[in-house]
Each structure stands twice: as structure tokens, then as C-alpha cells.
Specification:
The chain has 328 residues and is of the alpha/beta class. The protein has 10 helices and 14 strands. Strand 8 and strand 9 form a beta hairpin. Bound molecules: N,N,N-trimethyl-histidine (AVJ). N,N,N-trimethyl-histidine (AVJ) binds next to helix 2, helix 9 and strand 12.
Length: 328
Amino acid sequence: MTSNTGLQLVDRDEEGVDRAFRADVLEGLSEAQKAVPARWLYDDAGSQLFEDITRIPEYYPTRAETEILERRGEEFARLIGPGRAVVEFGSGSSVKTPLLLRAIEPAAYVPLDISGDFLRAAADDLAIKFPHLPVYPVEADFMRKVALPEGVADMPKLGFFPGSTIGNMVARTAVDLLRTMRETLGESARLLIGMDLIKDQSVLQAAYDDAAGVTAQFNRNLARRINRELGGTIPVDDLQHEARWNDDFARIEMHLVAQKDLEFEIAGRGFTMAKGETIHTENSHKFDQRSSATLLLAGGWTPVHRWTDDAGRFSLILAEASIKRSAP
Ligand code: AVJ
């Protein structure tokens, strides 16, 4: 396992509390619109619940993207070519990643993830499926530039960022990440990135507020995690899951809505919520052809090809690192 400079990825205090989590929660819940960064939804329980979400009937993105990966292998091979080191941002899915690797004859596979456990599991799984492919897992926070292993130094890179995870970020953060990816991947890199598409509101609403209530559990798990890890007393059952379409920003927002006036403590500090007040817990931005191109271009990537599933719900975009040139 390559550990990037052995840097401490989680900073805990004497009691084992994740300092960044506590700071984000205390700060976010002190703002006029209460909000907690979406990354804190994904502890072990949250990651498991998200896995469950990918299998519910209303949640189309995973199936739509997998359909593209299953059907377009020949085009990937032609447009991407063999011999690249595939650098995956996030620990990789046992379904999507093999579909890509099988299609393009890569020279190496480099999964990047902040969680060593997920990373090792994904890497082991891959090594069994592709016994001749060099696999170099790297435990790192890919929001910052990552030093890739020596073994792939001379290979051209293909970044792989499926799942529309980019949609979790507001434009500014997304652009920062795209530019950082360009730095991580180097000269003549390419990027294959999943971006979910703007569509009928009722379809989006259902995808983020499923009938079985799995997404509601996923959202409420954040409050449970706060109670568990930060000594919180949030009355979780008094918070209702809401998926809201924000048309100005073209995004689905997840909120936890207070069902009555609430008082609770977190890490010794008191908080109140008036009935109807919300905690904003996640954004899931949706794109069209132009907005996705604008975002990629702002991040230093020129789109070269795009695929959608047959129903036109989801897009997978191939982009190349833009070359600086003078205007126009
Ligand atoms: C993991 C960010 C891609 O936005 O669709 C799914 C997360 N949240 N249901 C998404 C999510 C609620 C998901 N991403």
C-alpha cells in the first residue's frame, strides 16, 4: 500500500473525536441556514445505505451509467486507446470499474481513496479479476494534488470519476477539484467523468425520496452519527427527510426538517430549531450539455465525447486536459 507521505488523514482528539467533523457540525449548525457538508454522510453506515440506494427502483443514476459502460466498450477502446494508467477518484465499484478496464486494456490501475479499508477491499477485488494488471492503491484525499506511484510515472493517465460525485460539489469546489485532478494526472491526461442530467422533476424527486425510505434513512444517519460521535442529543425521529429541487442552481437538495420546535446539544453546545426549519445535508447538481461543458472547461478539461444511456438520463463524458493557448 502506497501511503501518500504517511500524512494523517483523520485528526482525532484525546477522546477519539474527529476534529474536522466536530468543527464542520458546530459551525454549520450555527449558521442562519443550518448545513453540514455532505461528505459526513458517508461513514460506514452511510456508505452502506448509499450502496442500498443504488439498488432501489427509483434511483436510476447507477443503472444508467452502468448501461453506458456495458454498451460502449468498443468506443472507449477506440477513443481512449490502450496503455493508460487508470486513476480512479474514489474507491471504485466492483461493477463499473471492471467494465471500463475490460474495454480499454490499461497498463495499470490506481484507485485513490481517503478510506484505507474501502481501498484495500476494492484493490483486492480488482486484483482477482485482473491478475495481470498492476494495481497501485493510494490512500489519499483527492481534493488535493496526489503524488502518484513511481510505477505509473511514465504512463499517460486516464482519470475515472463515475457516479456524478462531481454533482455533490458547488461549482467553485467542483472547478477546484477538476483543476487539482489535472495536476494529479499530468500531461496529455484524459478524464472519463459521470454527470447526471437535468430531467423531469418528478423523476428526480422520486430518486431522492424513494418509497421504501432508504434515502430518508441515509439522510437521518447524519443526525445519528452526530449523536454517536459528538455526544449529540438530536431527536432523530423529529427530523423528516426532504428532497427539494432547487431550479436556480439545478440541483436536488437534501434537508432534514424539524417537525416541531426542537432543542438539543452537540459536544456540550446548545442548539434550537424552529418547527419547519431545516438542516441542509447534501446537494446533487444536475447538468445539461452546455453546463457540463462549461464546468469542465473552467476546470481545464475539454470535452471530446459524450455518451448517454438510451433513456437520456445520465451522461458519461470523455475530456482531455486543455492545452493553454492564446485567445481567442
Ligand atoms: C453519491 C453523490 C452520486 O447525488 O446521487 C444519492 C448521493 N444522495 N441519494 C447522488 C445520493 C441521495 C449520490 N452521489
